[in-house]
Queue: 2 jobs
Job 1
Amino acid sequence: MPQARAFSVALVGLDGQPVEVEAAIGGGLPRTVLVGLPDTALYEARDRCKAAAASSGLEWPNSLVTINLSPASLPKAGSHYDIAILAAVLAAAGVTRGERLDDTVLVGEVGLDGRVRAVRGVLPAMLAAVTSGFTRAIVPASMAHEAQLVEGVEIIGVHTVRDLVGVLDGGPVPVPEAPPSSEEPADPTPPDLLDVAGQVDARWALEVAAAGRHHIWLAGPPGVGKTMLAERLPGLLPELGTAESLEVSAIHSLAGRRLDGLVARPPYAAPHHSTSMASLVGGGPRLVTPGLISVAHRGVLFLDEAAEFPAKVLDALRTPLELGAVTIGRSQVQARFPADFQLVVASNPCPCGMASTPGAACTCTPMAIRRYSERLSGPIRDRVDITQVLRPIRKTFLAEAVHSAESTAVVADRVRAARERQAYRLGGTGWSTNSAVRGSYLRNQLPLPDGLEHLDTAVSRGRLSARGVDRVLRLAWTVADLGGRDRPSADDLMTALSMRRGEPATTGRVA
Ligand SMILES: [Zn+2]
């Protein structure tokens, strides 16, 4: 009985494992059967592959074709097994010589017309291929540039099933497709802090947030620059390391984002409050794909008008904020995606947005205002280290404010120096930024700041919770790191306390 095999990759979350596709021909009436825990899309694969072969002028065997995908225990979702199935069947049927099928991984979907179509997750699939020792990969021509971002595997892009058969016959490699036109780069330079007029306190709060990787809350009426500030946070953060860059790129590949190169900068995602749960946390009808909270992994997640988000959506952020990852369950498979993002939350002071604007008339009832702020309490507010209230700036101060503004590059340098101090101090602990340090370590292993009596006073007056104390300590360390001090001073502690409570800064970098 003629047989042949080809290899593809199964992706569960970001983890890929090789899948062997075996085809055997003969032994029964003409039909094609698939075995080995395929999902619905794979049953469609059978029909797609037959149609694609026919429209490419290739003969599908006119007898029993048995296609087995193994290991059988591995759930196999998605449509990217098509070209591996075609390769195995056509090689078993003798339509192609099937050269080097043993060291080649095949990833791609076919159209009924015989074209090979793009699929998600090519980058993590290639990472898995290299890990498993494959030396060659055949992918859709339109995805070849993404596949080539992974070193250690020869990439061949195919446009059509005919191209595929040509390559498997040992023929010439098809002409590569031009890289996607980059009128808009996929990984653009973030906008500059120079553009933010005034808001000296808020700029300082953003700098502290960047330096210690603290979640930050920006409260204030519409138009004061909350979004502008949030968009500028990624530019203040250090670039991603090599491993981080590969990890983030793999997530973006699975999320269906275009990759011009490996993602080098901390990403930024700003979901609208009407965004569906699946697009925010991940999911999808077939292949489980990451949501925006994972797209923001190692970068910034900005929730504008946070009180407008449905309560169940805000609640869904609780676990990722705790664990830095999200698990999406299915009947057969649990896909886990990293989701270690830095949160920037923006809200208006009240539903109409005017409550804190001097001279403006707020039309909200006290009840409405209370309900509005309660929506954000709990899962999110608990996690936020810095609260910054923004007020409209007066026009007369604007010119001067623009003049005195610092650029992203200047602030990013201070952030980098503060990060280095943290990395040095926390070396060997597994933490690299102040925001991540456990409370007991802060209180018992690190020197305590001066002026701790201020914290005692705040706690005894009920203005600060026990959990809040740890957050203030973390912040005080970041303020000290930015100032180049080996231990937080009483001033650093007071600055941290006011940042935690959302009061105007009493000390610190007030210009
Ligand atoms: Zn109002």
Note: Residues 175 and 368 are 63 Å apart (CA to CA).
Job 2
Amino acid sequence: MEYEREPREELLGLVRSLAERVRVDSELGRPLSWLTRVDPAVAVPKGDDRVRALADVPGPIPSAAPAAGKPGRLEALREELEGCGRCSLGTRRRCLVFGEGNPRAELVFVGEAPGADEDEQGRPFVGAAGQLLTKIIVAMGLKREDVYICNILKCRPPGNRNPLPEEIAACEPFLIRQLEAISPRIICALGSFAAHTLLQSEAPITVLRGRFHSYQGIPLMPTFHPAYLLRNPGAKKQVWEDVQEIMKVLRNG
Ligand code: SF4
């Protein structure tokens, strides 16, 4: 099998992933979310000192000295991730897709994982689904450079298959620190995997979308992934309704 892994390597990767997840959950002062589902309504508020301090707490990942400001913190995190092999996807990628956009963005879009085009270019949402996302952003009266775009996973799953739980567990701590560094006013979760991971919910995206939830005190709007819209253009109306809710919050400062 092309993607078969040595059992020992797989076990070590899983242990490393769980240890990292426990560390982050502990620092956030929240229950072990990989064992228990957490109601976002009782999540730690954004202003909590433990959350603010997260990016400054040295972790087991070798890291560069923390740089000041949002751009510096993001860049330091990007450097940490270079060469990452915390899950098996690291051995198969062409490019790591960290994320891009305004490090001080008020709005962050979080998708699922890079596809073939993204893996090739090292940039998020540059394929057909990305072009549709760009159109949505423009329709909101914004530019791609105004927002920040990233994914739950930073490396492409083979054949664009769904992310595995151990891959999400390995990569999510980096997303948590990425969002903490940007500290946006609103997060838009694109598709089921992003919504389920960020909200620690297993409810269908059809149930979650259309209203704001809370991620660490930040309003989070789940909506359909642009790739889903390419297959189901009829759902564009619902996505437009969702982004209009986002625009209302952004406009009301
Ligand atoms: S998907 Fe994330 S955890 Fe896995 S190798 Fe890539 S950057 Fe590392």
Note: The beta strands are 100-101, 107-111, 148-151, 186-190, 213-215, 218-223.
